[in-house]
């Protein structure tokens, strides 16, 4: 089973990349989780708030599902994304192998 559920904020505005018959919307979604050491949530000594670790996820949305994102969402807005992980491999101009990972969105909800 290859299912991913993420809730996070947009790191930047959605980016549109349209081809002849395919509309592609690219997102960078930031998720956060508390830093845990020795089984305890770490807290900032100055503020007392939990210290958080951020991860950035590339999300690709195809065709009509991406249009409302382009029109109504911007950096900082919160989204819930359900999709699948997709890995890719290619060679750059120098012939080096490159690898990538992205989430192919199957459902996106505005929060």
From TrEMBL:
A Gene Ontology term for the protein's cellular component: nucleoid
GO biological process, one term: DNA replication
Residues in coiled coil: none
Keywords: DNA recombination, DNA-binding
InterPro entries: NA-bd_OB-fold, Primosome_PriB/ssb, ssDNA-bd
One annotated GO molecular function: single-stranded DNA binding
UniProt-listed PANTHER family: SINGLE-STRANDED DNA-BINDING PROTEIN (PTHR10302), SINGLE-STRANDED DNA-BINDING PROTEIN, MITOCHONDRIAL (PTHR10302:SF0)
Protein name: Single-stranded DNA-binding protein
